[in-house]
């Protein structure tokens, strides 16, 4: 079964805080500089709110005009310091945040590509791309300005509260009651918003995944005129995302409204209590004016805290998702205690191998066979007979449910997969090419290969035959998935790539299915040279291409129905003979009457049809 991430919300607050502390510690230099700049900026921000007290009580009331220039100068210097430190703070911590995001993306991608293939079989590509690119975005609020602004707001609020207590402790105490209500409301809101943000990440991944599938399969979408259906599916996903975002907007709006209500109630208290104290002589006019400004110093950061707290909640939701992915064991971790793989000879043996994708539904049913080193084993059978699954087991993309596979006598499950796969070469039916040059794609298995080595294998695979017609030659860009090349050209590049790898075990899965007869004949010569001395597994599209195989396994419904070389199976006059004669008939008909169905019969045809009827009966 494919490993799928657990979509049930799972919150480990203690671990989330530990991860947050680790991120902050990793970037402690930038964060430390940011905190220092923040403290200077906040301290400078206290100067202007203090100025009215001296302006009103000393300059205006007492006539001390000599203080006016000094008050203005202090305000101007403090403003300049505030501006410079704010700019420097933004530069330092923003760069650190982007560096942290880039580093986390690298770590997530490095972990992702090392997960077992079975995980990717059950997960959309677009969803994984979203998890690598989008989930780390939120940590900018931990390492960047978000956390520092949060702490800065609290520092300003605490400092301002000290000033307020000095100016009027009774009014300040009454204010604290409302601030405590605000704090409790924030805590409740953040706890409820966190799962909503986490759900948003899941929905975004789903929508992105579907969009990537639609774009990747655009030719299929268009040929079956499915544009409207895909539009409807995407629209449904977007609407689901909209509903989630609307819920978060409601939550953040509620916190903002609460902050506005708190500010309003504090202002009312200030008017009532402060006004009475001024009339009673317990406060000066300058004190009241300064108190009002410092109330702003307290409440404005609290409003900011509401927004920053939401951002931090989003960051923790992203960490939840990243942790979920990084907790999955990689192949490297599974290989840690396995045996090293020397240069293998390639003797592969299946011993009573059973494999199930779903419990209780076997795809392979007790397969046993021996593939000696340097021999070619061909797999023949109808669609769904288990050929591709068998190949997948040889490549260690899956593990047997029962039985075992040995390589040179050692259990494949006990070998380090990375070292084992480094000695494999693969040519698939639908070969994947990267969006790069022809040379880069051929040299993918050996990036250090010289240009001469690339050209040598390209000639063997007859890549040189078509590349020589391109103006850019081997530097021609092939496009995403090799879309700028024909199917046959992509196949030749893949064959050249496998030849360059110089593998001990070679997998040919319908390796010449995209080639015309002339190209296939040419490349078969190259493949024969490649197969020499290597253990080769071939899934044959055209049975005429496997007549030289050392053994042929005929699979049906997960069982080996027949085995032997070509001559032995023809003499057996069974399923293989039936398949071979039928294909020979079709190919002969295409040669005689190209483009038409052959309706004539021969003695051989009648015998083949009679055998087929007997089996179906």
Keywords, please?
alpha/beta, Rossmann fold, six-stranded mixed beta sheet, 23 helices, disordered N terminus, disordered C terminus
Produce a short descriptive summary.
The chain has 23 helices and 10 strands. The model is unreliable at 1-10 and 594-617 (pLDDT under 50). The two termini are 35 Å apart.
Report on the architecture of this protein.
The chain has 3 domains: 14-332, ABC transporter type 1, transmembrane domain (ABC transporter transmembrane region fold); 348-423 and 504-572, Rossmann fold (3-Layer(aba) Sandwich); 432-502, P-loop containing nucleotide triphosphate hydrolases (Rossmann fold). Helix content is 63%, strand content 10%. The chain is built from 23 helices and 10 strands. The chain has a 6-stranded mixed beta sheet. The longest helix has 53 residues, at 227-279. The model is unreliable at 1-10 and 594-617 (pLDDT under 50).
Describe how the helices and strands are arranged:
Blueprint: H1 13-26, H2 28-44, H3 47-60, H4 67-112, H5 117-121, H6 125-133, H7 140-143, H8 145-167, H9 169-216, H10 218-223, H11 227-279, H12 285-326, H13 331-335, E1 348-358, E2 361-371, E3 376-381, H14 387-394, E4 402-407, E5 410-411, H15 417-421, E6 424-427, H16 438-442, H17 451-460, H18 464-467, H19 487-501, E7 505-509, H20 517-531, E8 535-539, E9 551-556, E10 559-564, H21 566-572, H22 575-592, H23 603-616
Parallel strand pairs: 3-8, 3-9, 6-7, 7-8
Antiparallel strand pairs: 1-2, 1-4, 4-5, 9-10
